[in-house]
Design the sequence.
């Protein structure tokens, strides 16, 4: 590890650049003073020391490991350190071995009160079990000694032959997504109120929380009052669990994201509050016919220079994404691959700010987001159907015809207006390349709402006043 810290002197200086260039436009405070501690402690607890494994269930779409009870899951959820082991794991989560005893049982997803079951849905579907820990995957009594898990039948809700004249049940997953929420402001509470109302009317199985959940420097510990003021109170009426990834502000250092040890505070809080679902800094969950992959893009940002920080995540998530046989694959992280906001496009973050010197675009270590671009090219582009992100404070749904040039075949959605807004560009300039959109707005905070019914994805944005954007829909593979 000491040899790996040789680049620290360089990176501390680079982090000063990140604080100046990559910080949210509406944050004027410098992060430079915080970065020293973050690097020293962060590297000792960086994901490179974690051992993450996920082995695919050989039962096709069923990647979730057999679970007999919440208690049994909690006892056995930590994954083996042997990266080649094929013993059954909890496919609900990819869990770091140093995650501070985080609850990896999937029990957080199993709260009947937070299921967000299909309420008021006009279509006839089976009860929505998205919030449960894949309870349909019972222990396989005939499993071989290698611990192979029974197939996850939640992905095939109508596995038996249909009765004569009865149409097969079409699986439906409904959820919302929003990020950059952690202000505790009136606007955050208004978005929370609109989210609660929309979920009550339309149904939400869960909510994707896309990072920067606590401005400006994350939380101090799992008992930090910010959890109450910036999470529990704003969303008290949202009857659904929140699936959490972290952003650069959650990782401290004034937004530079260098205090990697802070992840433990969020993992410990997840054990206290089942509504906050975060079993590890990166993890995955299969819900019916949709497989969700939670990524830690903050470490990817640093992976541009310090590759060991992100190496374990890339290896583990690459393996589980490749093994997934789900009909739909969706990734979500804090940082975007492409965005028309002030932060801009990965590989050229802050590109719109280099209008006078376009040649600088993409060459500044860490701040350019080259590490994020490289990681997404490995895990996301050409491999999943949709990627959700925040970071830029607005609402954007980019056209796939344009994103295919940069991230083949992936619908790119930025929902970072959960509490405040900045701006969006409408044309290319400087080092920034504009992305054509179905919809974009940076005047009013809000969230994204999606329904995946069979082979069709339908979605739209809702602002804090309850106003919907134009609905857009596409079929699998289109």
Sequence:
């Amino acid at each position: 590890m000491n040899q790996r810290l040789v680049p620290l002197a360089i990176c501390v200086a680079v982090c000063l650049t990140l604080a100046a260039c990559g910080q949210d436009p509406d944050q004027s405070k410098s992060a430079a003073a915080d970065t020293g501690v973050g690097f020293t402690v962060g590297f000792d607890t960086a994901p490179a020391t974690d051992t993450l494994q996920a082995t695919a269930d050989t039962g096709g779409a069923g990647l979730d490991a057999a679970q007999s009870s919440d208690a049994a899951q909690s006892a056995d959820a930590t994954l083996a350190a042997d990266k080649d082991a094929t013993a059954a794991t909890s496919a609900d989560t990819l869990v770091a071995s140093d995650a501070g005893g985080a609850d990896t049982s999937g029990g957080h997803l199993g709260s009947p009160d937070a299921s967000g079951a299909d309420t008021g849905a006009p279509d006839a579907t089976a009860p929505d079990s998205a919030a449960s820990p894949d309870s349909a995957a019972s222990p396989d009594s005939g499993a071989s000694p290698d611990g192979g898990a029974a197939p996850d039948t939640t992905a095939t809700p109508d596995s038996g032959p249909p009765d004569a004249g009865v149409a097969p049940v079409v699986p439906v997953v409904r959820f919302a997504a929003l990020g950059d929420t952690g202000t505790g402001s009136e606007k955050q509470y208004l978005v929370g109120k609109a989210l609660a109302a929309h979920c009550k009317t339309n149904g939400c199985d869960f909510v994707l929380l896309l990072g920067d959940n606590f401005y400006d420097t994350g939380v101090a510990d799992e008992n930090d009052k910010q959890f109450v003021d910036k999470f529990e109170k704003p969303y008290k009426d949202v009857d659904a669990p929140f699936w959490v990834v972290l952003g650069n502000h959650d990782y401290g250092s004034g937004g530079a994201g260098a205090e990697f040890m802070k992840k433990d505070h969020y993992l410990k809080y997840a054990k206290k509050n089942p509504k906050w679902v975060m079993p590890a800094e990166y993890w995955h969950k299969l819900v019916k016919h949709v497989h969700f992959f939670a990524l830690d893009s903050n470490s990817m940002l640093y992976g541009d220079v310090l590759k060991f920080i992100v190496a374990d995540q890339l290896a583990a998530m690459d393996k589980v994404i490749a093994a997934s046989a789900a009909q739909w694959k969706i990734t979500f992280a804090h940082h975007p691959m492409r965005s028309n906001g002030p932060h801009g496009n990965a590989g050229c973050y802050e590109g719109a700010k280099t209008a006078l010197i376009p040649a600088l675009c993409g060459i500044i270590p860490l701040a350019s987001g080259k590490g994020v671009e490289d990681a997404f090219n490995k895990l996301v582009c050409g491999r999943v159907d949709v990627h959700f992100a925040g970071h830029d404070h607005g609402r954007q749904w980019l056209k796939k015809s344009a994103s295919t040039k940069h991230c083949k075949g992936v619908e790119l959605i930025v929902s970072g207006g959960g509490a405040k807004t900045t701006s969006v560009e409408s044309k290319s300039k400087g080092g920034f390349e504009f992305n054509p959109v179905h919809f974009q707005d940076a005047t009013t905070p809000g969230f994204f709402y999606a329904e995946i019914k069979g082979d069709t994805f339908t979605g739209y944005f809702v602002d804090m006043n309850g106003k919907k954007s134009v609905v857009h829909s596409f079929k699998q593979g289109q």
